């Protein structure tokens, strides 16, 4: 969101899309490293911390790595990868995912801004 307090789910694959699409997730959902979308996080076993990643509750996913998407130091999104096996991801894999996220963040933000502009133009055409 514009005030950077929530992220809106815009795309998922391999998950029930009806529940996740356009869901909102608080940026600061808890305490420390695992409670903030602003920092990379590796969750080795979601069953050990119920509710740690609310969008994955009851999906069968047990491990997840999430990394922030930042443009000019501003949080613009988050990228996550999940697996059904516990302990699937390491800190090294989080670093590789962050490397990829750093390269796609600007493109994702540009697409978001383009979508907002199209919506704005559409609403103005009704006036």
Question: What would your notes on this structure say?
Answer:
31% of the residues lie in helices and 22% in strands. The protein is an alpha+beta fold. It has a single domain (6-121), classed as 2-Layer Sandwich (Beta-Lactamase), CATH 3.30.450.40. The strands form two sheets. It has a three-stranded antiparallel beta sheet. A two-stranded antiparallel sheet has the order 1-2. Strand 4 and strand 5 form a beta hairpin. The longest helix is centred in the last third of the chain and has 35 residues, at 91-125. Mean pLDDT is 82; it is low at 30-34.
Secondary-structure map with pairings?
Elements: E1 6-8, H1 17-20, E2 24-26, E3 41-43, E4 63-71, E5 74-83, H2 91-125
Antiparallel strand pairs: 1-2, 3-4, 4-5
In short:
By secondary structure, this protein is of the alpha+beta class. It has two helices and five strands; from the N terminus they run E-H-E-E-E-E-H.
Largest sheet geometry: 3 strands, antiparallel
Shape: globular
Topology order in helix (H) and strand (E) letters: EHEEEEH
Q: What class do helices, strands and sheet pairing give? A: alpha+beta
Average residue pLDDT: 82
* Terminal residue distance: 26 Å
How much strand content do the residues show? Answer: 15-25%
Q: Record the strand order, biggest sheet.
A: 3-4-5
Domain module count: 1
Instruction: Provide a count of the helices.
Output: 2
Poorly predicted residue ranges = 30-34
Q: Measured on Cα atoms, how large is the radius of gyration?
A: 16 Å
């Amino acid at each position: 969101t514009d005030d950077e307090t929530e992220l809106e789910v815009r795309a998922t694959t391999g998950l029930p899309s009806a529940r996740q699409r356009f869901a909102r997730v608080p940026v600061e959902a808890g305490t420390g490293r695992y409670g903030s979308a602003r920092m990379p996080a590796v969750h080795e076993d979601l069953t050990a911390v119920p509710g740690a990643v609310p969008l994955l509750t009851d999906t069968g996913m047990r491990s997840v790595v999430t990394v922030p998407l930042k443009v000019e130091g501003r949080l613009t999104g988050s990228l996550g990868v999940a697996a059904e096996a516990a302990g699937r991801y390491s800190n090294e894999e989080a670093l590789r995912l962050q490397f990829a996220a750093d390269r796609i963040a600007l493109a994702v933000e540009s697409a978001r801004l383009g979508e907002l502009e199209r919506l704005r133009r559409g609403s103005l055409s009704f006036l």
